[in-house]
Design brief:
The protein is about 30% helix and about 35% strand.
């Protein structure tokens, strides 16, 4: 029993960093849905300005366009309004930043050639391959500030993972509150740099397809196994089981 626990613990310890590193790699047979090949749809909206409240803060939301986005998630960052810049801004409404690609970026490229990462309100794409950089369409990528006070939608968004193919419907909108905070939105897919992110007030959120990366269950198993074997070992030591076996 002692040998089994040691072997299991060391096996999980070896698998954990490897699976953690590989769990968000894009699989080679990722099936891109037809809807993800098209750019987002944007239309004039008749919606009026409205107010919402979250965590004791009242926000003014100003819809600018109806918006319908299909995309493949390449990077994301969940936000906590009690930390960092969002705390400074008293912004609890921004539940996450989600960076997506569509079109030929999703269908024609090996996305593992690129390094995608999300800051607090930015998305970065890097590659050391000059040819891969030239093939990437910067107008087929967007970073989206997702805002909603709806707890069900917030839970859905917080379960999002890299490789998910999603649909978001809502409004491109600016929002503000009485302490002087104001965030706007991009209204075109061809801008870049500061101010190029889309701020979406989410009315509907769907994960249409999730990526079946086999390293994800390995990571979960190794993490649980590491704790499980450690607990069993501790219990065995406390009961004297392993010391008794060693004496035999």
């Amino acid at each position: 029993m002692e040998k089994l626990l040691k072997t299991g613990f060391l096996g999980c310890l070896a698998l954990l960093p490897v699976s953690c590193w590989l769990q968000d790699d894009f699989i080679s047979d990722l099936q891109i849905l037809p809807a993800v090949t098209a750019p987002p749809s944007q239309r004039t909206t008749p919606a009026d300005v409205f107010n919402v409240s979250l965590n004791g803060v009242n926000y003014r939301v100003e819809p600018q366009f109806d918006y319908d986005l299909h995309g493949l998630v390449v990077s994301l960052r969940h936000h906590d309004g009690d930390r960092m810049v969002h705390r400074l801004w008293n912004d609890h409404l921004n539940v996450a930043d989600v960076c997506v690609v569509w079109g030929r970026n999703a269908t024609d490229l090996d996305l593992n050639d690129y390094d995608f990462s999300s800051g607090e309100f930015t998305c970065f794409v890097r590659t050391g391959d000059f040819g891969a950089w030239n093939r990437f369409d910067m107008h087929g990528l967007s970073n989206n500030h997702l805002i909603t006070e709806d707890l069900y939608l917030r839970d859905q968004i917080e379960s999002l993972r890299i490789g998910d193919q999603i649909r978001i419907r809502g409004w491109l909108a600016s929002y503000s509150h009485g302490d002087g905070f104001l965030r706007g939105t991009s209204t075109t897919r061809t801008d870049e740099g500061n101010g190029a992110c889309e701020t979406i007030y989410v009315k509907s959120f769907q994960v249409l397809s999730s990526m079946g990366n086999g390293w994800r269950p390995v990571f979960e198993f190794s993490l649980l196994g590491l704790f499980g074997f450690a607990i069993l070992w501790t219990v065995g030591v406390m009961r004297g089981t392993f010391r008794h076996q060693a004496a035999d």
